[in-house]
Automatic annotation (TrEMBL):
This is Integrase zinc-binding domain-containing protein. Residues 80-121 form the Integrase zinc-binding domain. Pfam families: Integrase_H2C2. It comes from Cinchona calisaya. InterPro entries: Gypsy_RT_Integrase-like, Integrase_H2C2.
Length: 121
C-alpha cells in the first residue's frame, strides 16, 4: 500500500525518526552541560550570567545562551565537531566557509567560531 494511503504507518515511521533525533539532541545537551563545567571561560560566563553581571549571556536549564538564543558550546571533548554536521552531512552538502558559518551561528556560539570554521572548511 502506498505511503500516502497508509498514513498510520507513515506516522509511525516518522515517530521513530523524531525519537532518534530527540535522543541525539539530548546527548548533545548533556555533553554541553558537562563541558560547561570543564571550560574555564564558560565557567566564568556562567557565573557572571547567574549573578546578573553580564547581559549578553543568560542561563536556562543549566545551559548558557547568548543573543539570538544561540547555545554556548564549550571547548570540551569533541563538542565543537558540530561543524562536521553543518558542513559534511548529506543535508548540508559541503556548503563552503560562509554558509557553514551561517549554519553554525544560527544556533550555536563559541569564541573565535569563525576561525575554527575557516580552519575546518
Amino acid at each position: 500500500m502506498p505511503g500516502r494511503i497508509n498514513s498510520a504507518a507513515d506516522a509511525l515511521s516518522r515517530k521513530t525518526m523524531l525519537a532518534a533525533i530527540s535522543q541525539l539532541k539530548s546527548l548533545l545537551l548533556d555533553g554541553i552541560k558537562e563541558g560547561l563545567k570543564h571550560d574555564a571561560a564558560a565557567r566564568s560566563l556562567l557565573e557572571y550570567a547567574k549573578e546578573g553581571k553580564i547581559r549578553r549571556f543568560w542561563v536556562e536549564e543549566e545551559l548558557l545562551y547568548t543573543k539570538g538564543r544561540r547555545l554556548y558550546v564549550p571547548h570540551y571533548g569533541n563538542l565543537r565537531e558540530l561543524m562536521k554536521e553543518c558542513h559534511d552531512s548529506k543535508w548540508a552538502g559541503h556548503p563552503g566557509m560562509h554558509r557553514t558559518l551561517a549554519l553554525m551561528q544560527d544556533g550555536y556560539y563559541w569564541p573565535r567560531m569563525r576561525d575554527d570554521v575557516k580552519s575546518y572548511v
